[in-house]
Amino acid sequence: MERAHRILNETFGYSAFRHDQSEIIADLIAGRDAFVLMPTGGGKSLCYQIPALIRGGTGVVISPLIALMKDQVDALRQLGIRAASLNATEDPASLRRTEQALLEGQLDLLYLAPERLLNERMLALLERAGIALFAIDEAHCVSQWGHDFRPEYRQLDCLKTRFPGVPRIALTATADKRTRDEIVGQLSLEEARCYVSSFDRPNIRYQIEAEAGGREAMLRFIERVHAGDSGIVYCLSRRKVEETTEWLNARGRAALPYHAGLSDAVRRDNQERFLREDGLVMVATIAFGMGIDKPDVRFVAHLNLPRSIEAYYQETGRAGRDGLPASAWMSYSLQDIMTLRKMMAESEGTELFKRVSHHRLEAMLGLCESTACRRHTLLDYFGEGSGESCGNCDNCLDVARTWDATDAARKALSCVYRTGQRFGVAYVVSVLRGERHERIEANGHDRQSTFGIGAEHGAAEWRSIFRQLIARGYLESDLDGYGSLRLTERCRALLRGEETVHLREHRRRQVQKVASTRAWDGGPYDERLFDALRAMRSRLAKEQGVPPYVIFHDSTLKELAARVPDSISDVAGIQGIGQRKLELYGDIVLDTIRARDAASVAS
Ligand code: ADP
Ligand code: ZN
User: For 494-546, how does the pLDDT look when each residue is reduced to its tens digit (9 = 90+)?
Assistant: First the structure.
């Protein structure tokens, strides 16, 4: 472990291990398997990178995302680590070189997609080479329940028998119990020690708004809190991705689309730009994001309801991997609930699959409509009790008020019943409010006992009441395309007067004062110097054709701008600057700092 510490300091430039990193590393060095559940940004990669450097032979990393391998390899080479990847995007000469290096023991780390690994020729090649370990990244891809399912992952258990004695480590940021069991079973990891880190992401601020004006509200939020930052906006459909991209661009916010309907080339281009340029917004379906290592995504916004808490947590987890403040913002509507329920009912899956999907959506709705601390609710869902409120979510910062809505709920339910359970929310609300539409009169509902009994609430308020009643299972909306409402069993006690119901108050939330995104944990720093360092980093990144964060993370630049080192040995003390980066960039960093000093003396 002494060597592991030295590599952490000298190669990676970090002072201490985080979470369970050191135990995991010790396990692998000793040749034991490990199963690692750690949130995004927790530091999973070091868990196999360091043992791969210490054990003899090459560490083989299995990852589903060919498009991202190059950046991972580039980032390692910046640290002076001998890394390479083998995949279809590379030319034959470079493939041959890599294979040769592998056989000669000249590689520390090799990245492979599962389909290439499982190829008989590749397996034979690996058997001839010396293998330090296998790291199975994004291990939740074995799960047929998730949307990242990769059938080849299910064959990876062959590594156990074909490479006895080579330790395997599976890693994922998916915390759900069912997925965990599936991973252990499918990959034959029964003997692996399981490391579960806290799933809390304290630097992410959660905010969920219902029907608060969709994209208009989102743009206000972005402009107020994240002007100039990189972010991801998730939408449910391709069409909505296209529309939202166009809309954002028209409003002066540079945005790119990403969905499965675009050609590979366009997708690759957009992803490249998002990784390489500062301040772009990626508007995407869930097809985008897995394995995206961009550490400075400052916000993730959802314009639709995600289908489960797992999905929500994974998607929002892409914000703030560098540990600096970040936001998860969401706006959803009644229509989303109906659309998702319909999609689930009409999916090809088995009855069990539908039931599970349905429960997951219910849990997601529970989170949305909750008035308790969001983080608390999330961690609770993942089986991680956390005592106190977090102070960094909308419900903690701006206490959500509830009101006794028993009476209103009874009126709503009666009106649904009296109008024959054949109409959607808009119609029933009109009847409650006593609006004299032609359609209402034609149906004779203006002469009906619930007509006008709800005039005391506005239409928007009624919609909020209905949404919450649906979310809580008092009402079901039909999947007939009209969204006709129907009462459920659950209504009985409420209608009989044996139960009361408290709902969330309908009102626009106050504008949230959010700590400036330029803030970080390390106190004040020189913003002009930070900008100058950022420009220096852009230049270096362009010259080398790599993303800026491969050179330095924002957190490293901020620490430089806070501590303003004036000698090489002081630069060496900054987090994220190891020996190799010191050699490569130490002088340029000092020059940039001195140029600023000269400029401020001159002015
Ligand atoms: P994950 O794969 O779990 O999402 P990464 O392995 O990409 O996370 O690590 C996230 C960031 O944290 C990376 O920039 C990494 O270099 C950094 N990091 C990892 N371990 C440490 C550590 N012990 N100290 C400081 N930074 C670390
Ligand atoms: Zn909270």
Answer: 988 899 998 888 765 554 444 444 445 667 888 889 989 999 999 999 999 88
Instruction: State whether 78 and 218 are in the same domain.
Output: no
> According to the model, what pLDDT value does residue 245 have?
97
Q: Tell me, in angstroms, the distance from the centre of ligand 1 to residue 576's CA.
A: 10
Specify the pLDDT at position 188.
Answer: 93
Q: Is 517 a member of any domain?
A: no
Task: Identify whether residues 169 and 239 lie together within a single domain.
Answer: no
pLDDT at 231: 96
Predicted TM-score (pTM) above 0.70: yes
Alpha carbon of 172 to ligand 1 centroid (Å): 14
- Residue 524 CA neighbour count, 13 Å, CB half: 2
Sequence-separated (6 or more) residues with CB below 8 Å from residue 229? 222, 279, 296, 298, 299, 517
pLDDT tens digits for range 242-294: 999 999 999 999 999 999 999 999 998 999 899 888 889 999 998 787 667 78
CB-ligand 1 contact for 317 (6 Å cutoff): no
Of 145, 175, 196, which one is at a domain's C-terminal end?
Answer: 196
Residue 519 belongs to a domain: no
Residues 7 and 99 in one domain: yes
Nearest to 311 by CA among 300, 321, 320, 322: 300
The answer as to whether 511 is a domain residue is: no
For residue 285, give the CATH number of its domain: 3.40.50.300
Q: How far apart are CA 234 and CA 232, in angstroms?
A: 6
Question: Residue 116's domain spans which residues?
Answer: 2-196
CATH number, domain of 591, equals 1.10.150.80
Q: Whose CA is nearest to atom 10 of ligand 1?
A: 41
**Of 504, 519, 543, the domain-final residue:** 504
Q: Which atom of ligand 1 is nearest to the CA of 17?
A: 23
Q: State yes or no: pLDDT of 479 exceeds 80.
A: no
Mean local confidence (pLDDT), 302-327: 90
Residues 491 and 545 in one domain: no
The verdict on the CB of residue 14 being under 6 Å from ligand 1 is yes
- Based on the fold, state whether residues 115 and 26 are members of the same structural domain: yes
Predicted confidence band of residue 450 (pLDDT cuts 50, 70, 90): very high
DSSP H or E stretch at residue 504: strand 502-504
Does residue 154 belong to any structural domain of this protein? yes
Per-residue pLDDT tens over the stretch 425-435: 889 999 999 99
Confirm if 130 and 58 have CB atoms less than 8 A apart: yes
- Number of domains into which the chain is organized: 4
Overall residue count recorded for the chain in this entry: 603
